[in-house]
Amino acid sequence: xxxxxxxxxxxxxxxxxxxxxxxxxxxxxxxxxxxxxxxxxxxxxxxxxxxxxxxxxxxxxxxxxxxxxxxxxxxxxxxxxxxxxxxxxxxxxxxxxxxxxxxxxxxxxxxxxxxxxxxxxxxxxxxxxxxxxxxxxxxxxxxxxxxxxxxxxxxxxxxxxxxxxxxxxxxxxxxxxxxxxxxxxxxxxxxxxxxxxxxxxxxxxxxxxxxxxxxxxxxxxxxxxxxxxxxxxxxxxxxxxxxxxxxxxxxxxxxxxxxxxxxxxxxxxxxxxxxxxxxxxxxxxxxxxxxxxxxxxxxxxxxxxxxxxxxx
Length: 312
Hints:
- It is built from 14 helices and two strands.
- It is mainly alpha-helical.
- Strands 1-2 form a two-stranded antiparallel sheet.
- It comes from Afipia carboxidovorans (strain ATCC 49405 / DSM 1227 / KCTC 32145 / OM5) (Oligotropha carboxidovorans).
């Protein structure tokens, strides 16, 4: 695996840190998604593995694994364990993208500039690939390589389930669909709560996973939890702004999808200028949350600025 600094990082070095973690995550996922069965498995069907690999490899910034690695580095957690936890989180994220793109959800044809999984393969294969990535995530997060202490692995597993499930990402997705009027009368959702669940929960998990791996104190955990909350909302506001102002070629998917689906977003609620002001407030909140960590929080500070300023 490549080697990258694990403590502090000047802003100008952030892209190198992000790229290094992405490369390490890519290599790890490539190994985890091999066709060779693990102990206890009977066979890994070629078409299923092919679809899982198609939707998981060669794409994305790997921001969620990066958050795990960067937050764990504050506590000098071995990089290999943090990368394993990050890979589990990335499997959840990739599964969610496959399912979000389905005709029954957002009905998207493009993801990261390529045909979506159900367009490349078919709907049944895409559903099963998503299901399998979700299941693989919990296989990975419970492995001994993540952390030597089984209690830490248990806490990581429970937190991941809650971030991905009813009260997190999946719950947020159904709230989003309800806001489109899928189940009757259209009723504008509580955008902040919806975001905290659908998008923010997995991003925040990336931050608190580092605290759990590092067996942080109660105050340290609370600080990373607060940072993760601000980070998640900042990410979504930036995403909403990109959907309005972004370029489809840079985004790798059609722009203006939220408006086409009639979604209520931070931009529709706050306006473009109001959303940009809120984004700056969240950057200040993220910075304040990291104050207890001093220079060790610099990488996470740079990550917050990166999501606020991203173009895709």
